[in-house]
What we know:
Elements: H1 9-19, E1 31-32, H2 35-46, E2 52-56, H3 64-70, E3 73-78, H4 81-91, E4 97-101, H5 109-113, E5 118-123, H6 129-138, E6 143-151, H7 152-159, H8 168-176, E7 177-185, E8 190-191, E9 198-205, H9 215-227, H10 233-236, H11 243-253, H12 266-276
Parallel strand pairs: 2-3, 2-5, 3-4, 5-6
Antiparallel strand pairs: 1-8, 6-9, 7-9
Residues 27-32, 56-60, 62-63, 77-80, 83, 103-105, 123, 125, 128 line the site of S-adenosylmethionine.
Amino acid sequence: MAPDLLTDQSVVRSLLKKIGVSPAKRLGQNFLVDGHVVSMIREHVSSKNPDVIVEIGPGLGALTQALVEVAPSVLAVEIDRRLAKSLETRLGNHANLEVRTCDILQFDFQKEFEGRSVLVFGSLPYRITAPILKHLIRHRRVITDACLITQREVAEKIAHSPGKHGSALGVFVHSYADVAALRRIGKTSFFPVPEVESEYWELSFLAAPRFATEERAFFTVVRTLYGNRRKMVRRALQDILPVDRIHDVLASAQVDGTARGETLSFSELDCLAQLCQPHLIVNVAGSEID
Ligand code: SAM
């Protein structure tokens, strides 16, 4: 079957039937069926001249076909054994493609690609967007960029972080990467049609994070401020600092205690976290993001 037929819904339906898959919400199985979006992504990824692409969740392979045309090596990591097997059968003639049946959250980028640089591509299963982003950040030593389709609301919150319309996850991503929105994608570009709108965006990892504080302390402060968005900073900090320290810490950081945490810039968050760190009354072990 010509892979470009995968943008034809009736072809997608009959292929799914043939391989015995009825799309699972749990796995975010909404397949891209929009030829214009596939072409746009092919062009965008190609402009980055990647050596190695890791595709997260290739599904039926509508995008995998485009990726093998623009990179010397593509590793497609799919959790659903039936989809992986079908993809191997249909695209197995491409010597530069390897299909791996595996949970992307268990995939060790660093071990697999030590000393190389990888571009990650993925139309993500939306329910595990945050764990996947965290996983990519942990493995950023070998990942240069990630070109992703996610729920639009999540992408917008990340783009607006730190800020009033941002999120703790967004601050986390922005701490390690530049972020750029590339294109909005409507619901009808997928089969089955999802409940939410989507967005194609990219993140490019920075050489060094935007903060100097010890990572767990920094994110403990960020999580506390974004988890108490309605509270003034001086009240929110009561969750993690002895009350009698708060005034001095805020004064030294030159942060207005009556402000909301989400209005603080990276340098203010960093300075505040550095001053909080020696006094934290919570266990920060394993603390990153919700
Ligand atoms: N790339 C395909 C497309 O655009 O048509 C499918 C994208 S669909 C939104 C998400 C894909 O991720 C599905 O194929 C699903 O089976 C796969 N998936 C879900 N959880 C996964 C995981 N933990 N690791 C790897 N793949 C996963």
